[in-house]
Design brief:
There is one protein chain. By secondary structure, the chain is mainly α. It has 7 helices and no strands. The chain has helices at residues 3-15, 21-32, 37-66, 70-90, 92-101, 109-118, 123-156. The longest helix is centred in the last third of the chain and has 34 residues, at 123-156. The radius of gyration is 16 Å and the shape is globular.
């Protein structure tokens, strides 16, 4: 398998890991795999965007199983609590996009999808808001990655 295809597959798979998503895959692609920045950004963004339709496609059977686990029920409760302020401040649509765009642990496409499910939002509107948030998160992580890798670390080494 050509190295480019292998790298694209790695980045795509790392992005699909809940909790890691673009926060881990983009710095990994740029810093470890040494992919060109534009390629890493494109692959990580497309992979992170793919989470939304995948989640909504598999939502009912996966949540039916996951609701049997106490840790998942607690996680859903924490998601609802953490997002309350953002949603109240910006409204449901913009608040969901902002919540997903913040590249911190506990935010992201998966959490946005769970939040949309909890709030029983229209899937189309939720998918648009989550996708806008994903693009925002990818942009933030990309800018930070480029600054850290090309700026700060270059001074140390």
């Amino acid at each position: 398998m050509p190295i480019l295809l292998k790298n694209i597959l790695y980045v795509f798979l790392v992005t699909l890991i809940p909790g890691v998503e673009v926060r881990g895959s983009l710095p990994y692609a740029i810093g470890v795999l040494q992919m060109p920045a534009w390629q890493a950004l494109l692959v990580a963004t497309l992979a992170n965007l793919a989470i939304v339709p995948l989640f909504f496609l598999l939502e009912k059977p996966v949540l039916a199983v996951a609701m049997h686990w106490g840790w998942f029920r607690r996680y859903r409760s924490r998601v609802a609590e953490r997002s309350r302020g953002t949603l109240a401040r910006y409204g449901i649509f913009v608040g969901l996009a902002v919540f997903v765009a913040i590249p911190l642990p506990g935010t992201g496409a998966y959490t946005g999808c769970i939040l949309a499910e909890l709030l029983r939002l229209d899937r189309r509107r939720a998918a648009i808001a989550i996708s806008l948030g994903v693009v925002g998160a990818c942009s933030i992580v990309f800018l930070v990655s480029m600054g850290v890798i090309r700026g700060v670390l270059a001074r140390w080494f």
